């Protein structure tokens, strides 16, 4: 029996997945959580073979929780479910030692098969997401704007970016402002998120 933990905040979706997996003779859902910050503690308590985790969870991002889970319970395979697969998201998942990455709209039979394969130590990645990861969309930002936003993503201050790229602080602020506007982002942090998930930085 493959002991499975399910982390999904949408009650209807979580209930549907549990009902679906109930038909599988070799898979048992041993725990359900609706927040990312409950994953590790719950997993330590129930010792699942596989954790099926939604990316967008309240409390803690699903990929952050997946990385922490790998540190605490490396034998537990993680299968990430996502509504939108992007190259950056896939890279983050692989960095978090995730074994499976699939779209939420995949056929139900694929979920059970993915859980079995992840439990067996295989890597399972949705083919469409993998193809998208190899061909990220063209960035609307210039090379210099990407340099600046990439440095900001690493936590560098405006002064530090200016010094490292031999620019004035005003120019750095202009690049950051233009990048945010071009990406339709709400803030600099949101612009960094968009650039990362698109695979540009």
From TrEMBL:
<keyword id="KW-0238">DNA-binding</keyword>
<dbReference type="InterPro" id="IPR011006">
    <property type="entry name" value="CheY-like_superfamily"/>
</dbReference>
<dbReference type="InterPro" id="IPR000792">
    <property type="entry name" value="Tscrpt_reg_LuxR_C"/>
</dbReference>
<dbReference type="GO" id="GO:0000160">
    <property type="term" value="P:phosphorelay signal transduction system"/>
</dbReference>
<keyword id="KW-0597">Phosphoprotein</keyword>
<dbReference type="Pfam" id="PF00196">
    <property type="entry name" value="GerE"/>
</dbReference>
<dbReference type="InterPro" id="IPR039420">
    <property type="entry name" value="WalR-like"/>
</dbReference>
<dbReference type="InterPro" id="IPR001789">
    <property type="entry name" value="Sig_transdc_resp-reg_receiver"/>
</dbReference>
<feature type="modified residue" description="4-aspartylphosphate">
    <location>
        <position position="54"/>
    </location>
</feature>
<dbReference type="GO" id="GO:0003677">
    <property type="term" value="F:DNA binding"/>
</dbReference>
<feature type="domain" description="HTH luxR-type">
    <location>
        <begin position="134"/>
        <end position="199"/>
    </location>
</feature>
<feature type="domain" description="Response regulatory">
    <location>
        <begin position="3"/>
        <end position="119"/>
    </location>
</feature>
<protein>
    <submittedName>
        <fullName>DNA-binding response regulator</fullName>
    </submittedName>
</protein>
<dbReference type="Pfam" id="PF00072">
    <property type="entry name" value="Response_reg"/>
</dbReference>
<dbReference type="InterPro" id="IPR016032">
    <property type="entry name" value="Sig_transdc_resp-reg_C-effctor"/>
</dbReference>
<dbReference type="GO" id="GO:0006355">
    <property type="term" value="P:regulation of DNA-templated transcription"/>
</dbReference>
